[in-house]
Design goal:
Keywords: Coiled coil. This protein has 316 residues and is α+β, with helices and mostly antiparallel strands. It has a domain of 213 residues. The protein has ten helices and 16 strands. A hairpin with a 2-residue loop joins strand 13 and strand 14. The chain starts with 12 loop residues before the first strand and ends with a strand.
């Protein structure tokens, strides 16, 4: 790592660079970041600057199921801030990894971006998580967000549970997105259904650090009523017990559910799905997000709700 214009000295100094010209290194007292801002405000500034964003210079092909809002391109982090001075580097070197939304696709290879490799991504996590914890002198390191796009059959066969059991993985927020093309037999326009048997395995990998679990259910706009009914059943009957005994519950009233819509291409794998088009070459999508938040486990309620975990299918 190369550093520029900044040391922990108390006064400015002049020194020659590789061209022979003089450079000035200013003291920390002369930087508003350190002289005026309290640490808690400064950390928010650093977090904002080091948050990841879409790299619009490398857009995904539009006719794919992984090109979607917030993911029309690979996400990246600008790390120029880390090269400004040693003091900033000391405070922020770990933030790009901690703040970046760790995104994984648990699906067939053609459902994920071409640069994504599941084995490589998980291997990288296993290597970096303990190393960052060691350098921070902590038992563990918590990442801000883990986002999983998964085909339903991969959720049900344990793919999500396997990811959550990754050694050292402690996300504060988990988002599971089921896309229109991830549902069982979507090609045949079958009624939507969501099994619940996978929950028990997933719970055994839920770190105490997890404060929020977001379940995003996406389908076509014309299947809105099916999504709404499934979401209501899930909110009323599903819960997620973490390893520390605390439980994530949803808002049963549905008032906290989030609804969003977007319009995308009707072509995927060179096949145009005219059956589902609302306009030439376009599909209207409907997304409902159920948020489960951290609450202390009430044993009796847990037993009662365990009896309600079952398959739920919308009949057309």
């Amino acid at each position: 790592m190369q550093y520029f214009h900044g040391t922990a000295s108390k006064r400015s100094t002049r020194r020659k660079n590789h061209t022979g010209a003089f450079q000035v290194s200013w003291s920390l007292e002369e930087s508003p970041l350190f002289s005026l801002l309290p640490p808690e405000i400064r950390s928010k500034v650093f977090a904002f600057v080091l948050s990841d964003y879409e790299d619009t210079n490398s857009l995904y092909h539009i006719d794919t199921c992984y090109s979607r809002p917030s993911y029309f391109a690979p996400r990246k982090t600008s790390t120029e801030l880390l090269r400004t001075c040693r003091a900033i580097y000391r405070e922020t070197w770990f933030l790009p990894f901690i703040l970046t939304e760790q995104t994984h696709w648990i699906s067939a290879p053609d459902r994920a971006p071409p640069n994504y490799n599941s084995w490589n991504s998980i291997t990288k996590l296993k290597r970096l998580l303990p190393e960052i914890a060691r350098q921070l002198n902590q038992d563990k390191v918590e990442i801000e967000s883990l986002h999983v796009f998964a085909q339903m059959y991969r959720v049900e066969d344990g793919g999500l549970a396997q990811l959550l059991h990754t050694s050292g993985l402690h996300p504060r927020r988990l988002t599971l997105t089921i896309r229109h093309t991830d549902w069982w037999l979507w090609e045949n326009d079958e009624p939507l259904r969501f099994e619940a048997d996978w929950i028990n395995r997933v719970q055994t990998g839920m770190s105490p650090s997890m404060q929020e679990f977001r379940l995003e259910l996406e389908s076509l706009e014309r299947k809105k009523d099916q999504i709404d009914a499934i979401a209501q059943h899930i909110a009323e009957n599903w819960f997620f017990k973490k390893l520390d005994g605390n439980v994530l519950y949803a808002d049963v009233s549905g008032k906290c559910h989030e609804v969003s819509r977007w319009t995308g291409t009707s072509t995927w794998h060179n096949k145009r799905w005219t059956r589902d088009e609302n306009a030439a070459g376009q599909l209207d999508y409907y997304i409902l997000t159920i948020t489960f938040i951290n609450q202390f486990c009430q044993p009796i309620l847990c037993v009662l709700q365990s009896c309600a975990l079952r398959t739920f299918t919308i009949q057309s």
